[in-house]
Amino acid sequence: MVPTILAIDDDQIFQILVKRIFEPMGAQVVSAFNSDEGLEMARQVGPAVILVDIRLPGKIGDGWMLARIIKHDPELQHIPVIMVSASGGGMGGYPPEAGDNDGYFAKPFKVDAFREAILRLLT
To answer: pLDDT tens, 81-92?
Structure first.
């Protein structure tokens, strides 16, 4: 079975980067560009890992709110949620480790470290 990574980020460059890192390794990468699409895709696809940008457009709210919804949904709460952000210290006064998530990467990040961390979640 091919693992699926859901990347929820309105930055197309990040979406391309995630595909270039993981698709050659056999993973399927599915993209969503706002919090509303992200939640819908999570429910449709049932990914192995969800990558969530902190600054997200959408009616649901930002990435913190989306992660909270995912982690409190009985059908989705088992999926690891990794927060990603261009702000190294978190957003809105929250430290990176705060909230309903399983990890945090500040952009820009070291690709090798990012790849290894996500691969550990896929195995």
So the answer is: 999 988 655 444
